[in-house]
Each structure stands twice: as C-alpha cells, then as structure tokens.
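Notes from the pairing session

We agreed to fold both candidates in a single pass and log them together. This is the raw record for the first candidate, unedited. Please don't reformat it; downstream parsing expects exactly this layout.

Candidate A
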Amino acid sequence: MPFAADQAKEALNFNITLAIAFAVLVLFTIFTLGVGVLLTWPVGAILCIAWIVLTIVAAIKAHEGTAYRYPFTLRLVN
C-alpha cells in the first residue's frame, strides 16, 4: 500500500502545516493584546476555507488513484 502511505504522509504534512499557521495566528493575537484579531480573523477564515477545499480535492484525486500534492505544505514527515 505505498500509494495510501504516500497520501497519508502528504495529508499529515498539510495538517501539521495548518496547525503551525493557526498557532502563529493565535500567538499574534495574544501578543498584540487582541488588536491583532482584526488581521487574524480574516486570515484564519481563509485558511479554514482552503483547508476544506484542498482536503476535498485531495480525497477526489486519491479516489481516482492520482497522487496529490498540497500547495504551500512543509514536508516534515517523509
């Protein structure tokens, strides 16, 4: 099952990358004493929408048997 393992690693890398991005947004909001929420709220909403859309696209590609690489993903797990 090398295809499934490859796609699982890709999905894990994508979710780790998004978790890091959300952690940075939360820290930014905390360090700016809440004023940063004016920036982090729209960015967080865009990230949530991108997460849903890219996860659906990846699921469709995997169902077709095509390898899918998420854009802007840190390759942490090989």
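Candidate B (folded immediately after A)
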Amino acid sequence: MLKELYPILIVVGVTIGAVLAYLWQQSRSASNINLALIRLNEQLQFDTPAFLQAAWPLLSQAGLRGIKWKLDWYGAPLEGQSGHAGGTSIDKEIQVAELKLTIRFQQNRHGERRYFDEALIETFLLLLRTDMSIKASVTDVTFSQMSKLTLFLQHDMKNVAQFIQLMADQVAMVPAGKELQMLDYLRTAAPLIRHRADRIVRTLTVGQLHNEPLRTMQLSEELTQLCSLYRLDSTINGAAQVTVPENTLDSALDNILKNYSDISLRNSGIKPFVSITINDNELNVEIDITATNMPPVAHVERLFEPFWSSDPAGLGIGLYQAKQMLEICKGTIAAKQSEAGQLKFKIRIEK
C-alpha cells in the first residue's frame, strides 16, 4: 500500500517545494524593490514631489499596472500619472498638516501576487507619509526659530529705543556747565548703541547668522563700558580674555546689567551698586555679578523663564535671551538670592 503512495508523495513534495521556491523568489524580489525604494528616497533627500515622480520604474518592475496621483503642496497642485488604467483600483489618501496626497494604484495581478503588490503599496505609502511628516516638521521648526528670532529682535529694539529716550531726557535736562560731562558720556555710549543698532539692522536684512565670526573680548573693558552705558555705580575686580562668537556674550552681559538700570528707573531713589568679580581659571572663566541696595526679587527661580517678568512693562525675554546666548558660548548662568536679599548672577564660560 505504501509503495503505491510513494509516487503521489513525491509529486506532492516536489509541488510543495516548487511552490515554496516560487514564493521565496517572489518575496526576495519584493524585498529588493522595497529596499530600492528606500534608497531612492534617501537619494532624493526625502523630497515628496521628486519621489513621486521618480518611483514609477520600480513600481512597474514590481508588477503594478499604473499610478495616478494629485498632491496639494502648500496650496500648489501637483499631478502625475504613469502606466496604464484598468485592472483593480486602490485609492489612498495621506494628509499631514497642510500637505495632502491622493493616489490611485492600478493592480492587475491576482492570487498570491496581489498580496505582494499590496505590501509594496503600503511600503510606498509609508515612505511618502514619512517624507511629508519630515517636511512639515522642518517647516514647524523653522517657523519656531523665526518666532524666537523675532522676539529677540523686538527685545533688542526695545532696549535701543529706551536708551534713546533716556539719552534724550538727559540731554534736555543737562545743567549749565555740565555739557562736557554729558558729551564724554555720549562718546562712550554712542558706539555701544551703534553696535547694537548695526546688529539689529543686519539681522533684519540677512536673518540670523549661523557660524558667527569669533571675537576676542577683554571682559573687564566690556563690563566697564556697559556699566558706564547704564550709569551703574560699580566695582570690577579681576580680568580675563575670552574668544566667543560675536554678538553673544556681549548681548548676554548687556541684558543682565540693563536689568539693574531698569530697576533704578522703576524705583525712584534706588541706585543699585554692582560688584563684579572675574576669575580666570584653567578650564573656564567665571563672572560673578552681585548688586546691593536693591529690593529683593520675587520668584528667583523664574528669572530665566520666557515671557515672565516682574516688570509689568517687560517682555520677559531679556534673561532668557542671555541664557540662550551664553549656551552658544558653551557657557551657563545661574541666579541666587541671599537671605539679605542680594541677587547674584554666576556665569561660567568654557575656554
């Protein structure tokens, strides 16, 4: 009896082997095409319109009959069609933020080959969705950076405008015989204000510059000029030289010291005295800024929080901007208030 079944079993075994070999070949071919689609997408730098236009040869090689698509690309309609109509239609739609894609696949294979086609279509759609998500994310990040830049510019322009107002008031009220002292002050202050105005104009003209040129600063000189600009009584002990990206450290120090000037203007009769110590260590430079004769600051832990300010007229950007600028310099800043109410800023910059 078993001898009579041997030929049947052999035929069945050969048939199963042939089917497995065929499925393995189909699976390997589909895997190679999927991999080729992924590499093509990488070569096109994940650009959705370019990928849609360039993918048809691989899709055709996989056995699809045709493809037709319509892409709403930030309000601009893009359309494309390849292959032939007919067969079974598969309609798909992808929408990511402002981007919308409708696509129709024409399929003419049946049986197990249809499942390979559907797997290929899902891979293709996944790549398209990923490309659209990447583009939408890059757009969101860019707008976020532009919003931050706009806030920083608004804060810088406000500082310059306030100084011009203050300078105009002081010029109008200068006592007789004190004109030369006012002129000396203006000679010191005008170049600093011009530097800030040039920075604002440049940023408005060409945008935020990456890879800013490096600038070597003598910290004691820079701090002396800033204290003079804001007419702060101060002592500066120590000296150090640092090389940092331009318009970073000076902006940070400017924002910190201007706060003391603002406090003096808001509270008539209060004249902060600023003590600054510079320590030049082997690995970093430390700057300690302490002010006396100042009212205690409420919620010190929120000083670097964006949009928070103890001044009703403040934007809540200055110290947040200072922290951002110091991070570009590979630096850090912290604030601490003693029990007596003295507020101390500690800045550390890596060499």
